[in-house]
């Protein structure tokens, strides 16, 4: 069995910046058709133009992953425009890190809504299409935060580990060869992720760690491409990509 990135149809959530944007460029550069979703459509427009200028195939649409129907529209666009959906990269995420005792309940809910419910919405939209086609690949961006528990990341890590659990159960439920699942666990990656942390102390600390240690989002994009390009009967279940100097 052979497989590659070329000619795969890949939908990516959270494609407007960071890992999602890098993945869009990496996969489109290798000949995939990409469907890009996020809320900042100006960023998506620029990315689509850049990919098309380079001879690639890309479409975009506004997607808020907390809205189930947005994921349905994303999957439908892939099928309508490119004939099928081979891979869904559920990458959209927020990291509102803070100690639990700060009781930032709105931030807890935002992380649950985007990082967990958003992935579930993607599964609900893509799985029927994967089953109808007889193949499909679900890639999610989880985190090393779920592997090494540290203060101030409890809810964030909890959402990422919930997704890890979800994927493992889904994998065991899908041993008929229709579905492949991959959990990508990045460590510190230089993106905008921690710029949205509300608490200035936590934000400074996280931004400093990113600046000191963070690797390029291109490294994660290459790991996602590696998982996707495997032969159809090979599933890369878990991949951790972290800075060599990360503790
Ligand atoms: P960015 O902040 O650059 O990217 C986050 C992406 O998620 C953006 O494209 C943003 O788009 C999108 N997003 C946020 N909320 C929503 C929403 N409600 N609906 C749709 N899209 C949304 O950070 P990263 O690239 O670093 O993050 C990508 C993933 O990688 C996340 O899941 C993150 O948890 C994970 N990760 C990152 C690490 C790092 O060190 N950077 C480490 C481990 C995991 P928009 O605002 O336009 O909607």
TrEMBL record:
Which intervals of the chain form a coiled coil? none
Does Oxidoreductase appear among the keywords?
Answer: yes
* Claim: Transferase is one of the keywords in the record: no
Q: Which InterPro entries match?
A: KR_dom, NAD(P)-bd_dom_sf, Sc_DH/Rdtase_CS, SDR_fam
Pfam families, alphabetized: adh_short (PF00106)
What keywords were assigned to this record? Oxidoreductase
Ketoreductase domain span: 8-191
- Please give the SMART domains that the UniProt record associates with this protein: PKS_KR
User: Which protein family is named in the record?
Assistant: Belongs to the short-chain dehydrogenases/reductases (SDR) family.
Protein name as annotated: NADP-dependent 3-hydroxy acid dehydrogenase YdfG
Higher taxonomy: Bacteria, Bacillati, Actinomycetota, Actinomycetes, Pseudonocardiales
């Amino acid at each position: 069995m052979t497989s590659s990135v070329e000619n795969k149809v890949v939908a990516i959530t959270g494609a407007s910046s960071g890992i999602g944007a890098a993945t869009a460029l990496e996969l489109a550069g290798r000949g995939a058709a990409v469907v890009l979703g996020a809320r900042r459509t100006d960023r998506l427009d620029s990315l689509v133009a850049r990919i098309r200028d380079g001879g690639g195939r890309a479409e975009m649409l506004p997607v808020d992953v907390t809205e189930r129907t947005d994921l349905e529209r994303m999957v439908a666009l892939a099928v309508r425009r490119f004939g099928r959906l081979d891979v869904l990269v559920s990458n959209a995420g927020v990291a509102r890190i803070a100690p639990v005792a700060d009781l930032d309940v709105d931030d807890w809910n935002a992380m649950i809504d985007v990082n967990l419910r958003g992935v579930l919405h993607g599964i609900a939209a893509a799985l029927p299409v994967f089953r109808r086609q007889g193949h499909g690949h679900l890639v999610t961006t989880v985190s090393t935060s779920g592997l090494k528990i540290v203060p101030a990341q409890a809810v964030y890590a909890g959402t990422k580990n919930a997704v890890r659990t979800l994927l493992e159960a889904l994998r065991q439920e899908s041993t008929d060869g229709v579905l492949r699942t991959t959990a990508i666990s990045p460590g510190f990656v230089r993106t905008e992720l921690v710029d949205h942390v509300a608490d200035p102390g936590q934000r400074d600390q996280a931004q400093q760690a990113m600046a000191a240690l963070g690797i390029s989002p291109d490294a994660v994009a290459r790991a996602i491409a590696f998982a996707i390009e495997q032969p159809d009967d090979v599933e890369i279940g878990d991949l951790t990509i972290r800075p060599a100097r990360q503790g």
